[in-house]
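Record type: monomer structure entry
Structure origin: computed from sequence
Chain ID: A
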Amino acid sequence: MSVALTGVTSSAPTDAALRVRHDLGHRVVVGHGDVDLVTYVYGPDDVQLESPRPYLHPVRTLGGELMTLFRPHDHVWHKGIALSLPNVGRHNFWGGPTFVRDEGYVQLANNGSMDHVRFTQLEVSGDAARLAHELAWHTQPDGPDGGAEVVRETRRITATVPPDDGSRAASTAWVLTLESSLTNVSDEALDIGSPTTNGRENAGYGGLFWRGPRAFTGGTILWPGQAGGEEARGTRAEWMGFTGRHDGSGESSSLVVVDDGANPHHPPEWFVRNEWFAGVNPAPFFSEEVPFPPGGTLDLRYAVVIADGAADPVRAEALAGFGRTALAGLDAAEPEGVARG
């Protein structure tokens, strides 16, 4: 069943540029004008090996260029933009094999899932579309823990189109924010790490992970005052970005991810790639585990800025400014707690 929601709260104008469609039990689509900017699949049908979890794909620029890749053959567990964690205690919420110290990658019976429980918000108001829901993180059903719930999460995703102030940056960019509050509901510590904390050098991936389109391979990684390639991996910075060129249209587009100042280990080390594939990941667990004791809570907040056109470090800094503004405005837009299924 598909439900169209354009201004689902009374505060939204009937001619709002943003629109929302909810395909019940499966996904929410946010559009602007005639472009579907982002699809949030909260009810995935992935196999257990790929650690089923919500993901954002496709994600497009305001001009309609595709900015994400889904289930690439080289890493089938990469799903657009997703919160993905390979090492949550003994559990894998990333997908595929787990890196085991002194053994390498081993396929274990530990691929968990992040499962939708209920919505608490779904609305369009002014220039923003907001979605909030609860998730239960379960261990692998046929694994040693038998599908137990180990983490309870509340998540809010907001899509904002900044008002056009006449600048090129404002007229070509929109912002996606993700807020996640994780609570360890198990009876054991679930300290969060990465393959690097397990012994693999410079492979500290885990957290909010963007997999870019195949054509972006060989594109340019951007960070404050710099542009380059994979030498940026492991660098600490408030933000990092990527600019690449699309097949088909030949046009360029850019992405900037901004880490919130309250996130653990801010500014984080970043896992970034441009040689084998395009990937950007602020990785607070890159080289040092974050403790996650029973009953403990971990909060994460990020802004992802999507823009038409190429970027250099100067433009990327301007785009990061939109991300900072979006993060600063989150506290003023708390969910109203209206359950919608």
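Annotation 1: The radius of gyration is 19 Å.
Annotation 2: Helices lie at 168-172, 313-328.
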